Structures are given as structure tokens and as C-alpha cells.
Amino acid sequence: MSDQECLMNSLKKELRSLLIATKDGLTPSNLEQEFKSMIGEQLPFRALGYSSVMELVQDMPDVVNICPQRNGIVILKAIADESTKEIASLVAKQKSRPKPQPPRHKLNFSLHCTSPSGLSRRSQISPRLPWRGRVPPTLPAAVRSELKDLLGHSPILLSDFDKAFVQRFGRTFDFMRYGFFSMYEVLNAASDIITIVQTRTGSMLTLKKSLPKKKPVKLPTCKTAYA
Questions:
Q1: Is residue 156 domain-shared with residue 82, that is, in the same domain?
Q2: For the residues 141-159, what does the mean pLDDT come to?
Q3: 62, 148, 191, 216: which sits with the fewest CB atoms below 10 Å from its CB?
Q4: What is the pLDDT of residues 135-144, one digit of tens each?
């Protein structure tokens, strides 16, 4: 398998995981922004020979559902596979946040920052998960310890994470058990210990190197002279 084929397969998994956690879908520009925000690198459509995000997702009919809207906006939604059907079902049951009434005063932001819901990205409480209406959960200490142990041996491709976790701990990584709806939420919660590096074969998870603890400076003791 060539590097481009590996990158495409890895990217399909990443985009499905990213889109499946967003009930109302994302526009192509929003998808590009979310990928950049989470991975720290641009969506590598040019490295795969595509000239735009739309051209890329059009070549992923098994992963991305392209939904044109009446207002001309295109919304991208995930197509669940066998491994993500349960997550997609839970996401679909979540209530969408009600759209706020537009304010009467003039808003001071440009149209290119507007999301499909009509809110600017800065005015959304949670840009990555606008439909959940709550702060994403935190990772339990035991899970953080497992992630450190797993990545402490060597970096792992995001697409190989599940297999590596099973091999290491003898069970699957059930992120839904901890209140997460995708691996991207998990990685966001673990961003203080995990770095995502974009490589030719996909997103690589690496453990952040902890800074050495500084030793406390011992102050010289002052001897008091007694007469």
C-alpha cells in the first residue's frame, strides 16, 4: 500500500470520527477549521491530489454524506460504519440546541465567520460540539495513566489506536463509557499529555515530554553571632 493510500484510509477514519460527533453536520470550511483545531495541521487534501475540501469529500461516498441546503450552503454529515453505528444512534437522539432569536442591534462580525446554525464561531458556547449544550467530560486519572503507558513505548497512528490498545490492555477502548462521543473528544481532553502530529500516513499520536521538575533552591542559612 502506497503512502497516499495509507493517508487516504487514515483520513477517512478521522473525518468520520470528527463528523459523527456533530449532529447537525459541518460546512466544508467548518470541517477544515475543526480538523486544523484538533490535529494542528491543515486538512491534507492537496497532498492527496485534490484542489479543495469538496473535491476530497466527493471522493468519499462511503464516509461523507453531502447535503445541499436551500440557502446554497452545503452540509457534510458522517456515514456510520459497523464500528460507529452505536455512536451515531446516540448522537441522533440528542436534542439540538434551539436557535436563538436574532438580536435587533447590528452585529459586528462578517458573514464568512457564520456557521450553519446562524451563530458566529466566537458566539457559540462549544464550537466543536454545539448540539450537546454541556462541557465535554474530563478523562479519569486511570484512563490518562493507560494512555501514558500506551504511548510511552512508541507513537501510534490514530487509525491504529484501537488495535494497539487491545494488544496492550486486552480490551477495547470504550470512550463512550466515560461520556465521550468520539476519539477527537478524548484527544481534546488529553491535549495536555498527547500531541497529534500529521505524517504522510496519517495522524500520529505522541506523548508529550514532561518538563523536568526544578529542584527547590536552598537559601543559605544566616548564622547569628552571639556576643
A1: no
A2: 91
A3: 216
A4: 668 889 999 9
